[in-house]
Fold this sequence. Notes:
Layout: H1 2-8, H2 10-15, E1 20-25, E2 30-33, H3 35-41, H4 45-48, H5 74-78, E3 80-89, E4 95-106, E5 112-121, H6 123-142, E6 144-145, E7 148-149, H7 153-165, E8 172-175, H8 182-191, E9 200-204, H9 210-218, H10 235-238, E10 243-247, H11 254-266, E11 268-270, E12 277-279, E13 283-288, H12 292-297, H13 303-309, E14 312-315, H14 326-341, E15 347-348, H15 350-358, H16 364-378, E16 383-384, H17 391-394, H18 411-425, H19 430-437, H20 441-450, H21 455-458
Parallel strand pairs: 8-13, 8-14, 9-10, 10-13, 15-16
Antiparallel strand pairs: 1-2, 1-5, 3-4, 4-5, 6-7, 11-12
Helix pairs in contact: 11-13, 14-16, 18-19, 19-20
Amino acid sequence: MFEQELNxxxxxxxxxxxxxxxxxxxxxxxxxVNKAFESITGYxxxxxxxxxxxxxxxxxxxxxxQTQDDIxxxxxxxxxxxxxxxxxxxxxxxxxxVIKNASVLRDLKDKxxxxxxxxxxxxxxxxxxxxxxxxxxQLCSENGFQGMLGASVAIERVFELISNVATSDAPIxxxxxxxxxxxxxxxAIHDIGQRKNKPFVKVNCAALNESLLESELFGxxxxxxxxxxxxxxxxxxxxxGGDIFLDEIGDLPLITQIKLLRVLEEKTIERVGDNxxxxxxxxxxxxxxxxxxxxxxxxxxxxxxxxRINVIPIYVPPLRKRREDIPLFVDHSIQRIRLKTGxxxxxxxxxxxxxxxxxxxxxxxRELKSAFEYAAVSCQESIIKPHNFPPNIYQQNISxxxxxxxxxxxxxxxxxxxxxxxxxxxxGNQSEAARILGIxxxxxxxxxxxxxxxxxxxxxx
Length: 461
């Protein structure tokens, strides 16, 4: 009895579904659509019944027909269609992005009688993803390099050096305090270098003990030690053709340093428990927050290895040495809060900005990111204030600033001023201005064009 009543009300049930539903016969003619279908496609029920489903102009449909009575659609050949993303054309000519699911319908004798298809409108999701992608691209392209933010002279020198060394196969070492972004520098070197389509393998030398580290780097053979039930390739083999990034190289044990030196000199490795050399082609990128020269003097780091890895040094400045970049990180962090939490945080007040500009940031960028993670939770208003940051930052002894003073520098004006001042010092010589700023002549020229700097009018007083 219930089934009979349910059959009588099935159209009402289908019309409550938010996804569009379309039923076609074996010839592809539409026999039923629900209200959601009408809303998504713009076609009213009366205009589509009896029409071919081809009127939707789906950009992924595969059609084939051998005879007039032959099954004509890919769906009737495969039986189902799962989670296919496609684009339909509405009645008004606009395109709509949808996720399509479909299945054939069979009668009691298992003969195909038609098919049912559901469509889910994902247009708004696509728009949101596009906006997020555009926002991320804008944040990275205008004021950064390969995912690293910064417009200060200090960090742009790093960006310039990354570009210059990326194509080299010489060992590269990255110096910098904890939290300055040394891994991002290593990743950027890989991503714009000739090995970008090959592996990028990371190893934290401080995270493993001596025995595990050697096996991790060079691999081992079966039976090499207790628990070695089968052979395993190491990180150097995994990185063949690409780059290997050895983070915290200053914590590498002396015995492992000797083996690493051999890799650098002979381009071969030996698995633990084996004496068969395996040739590897890798570029070695190392990083440390320690003074390796001091470690060499006290005997905890080999001098010959130091000179082998210290071929191309890159020094990443701490955040306190590039304070003019802090507003960029603030803007970026606020945008991230909006995207992740949905909170309508419009900005940061002057006192909070002054707090961030005067703090020493011993944890550098990593600490700044953590501070904004804290602020994202504690801020319940539209403006971030000093008390929204962690106590160790908020409890600094600072005096409030008046609203008439702007503690947040205009980064565009800063860049323009830097170019103008450098050109003044160089008497208008762009190459000399580039040397003063530590950037390329092309960068000077592009900024002059971007900021509409007329050499005779603005470079000289």
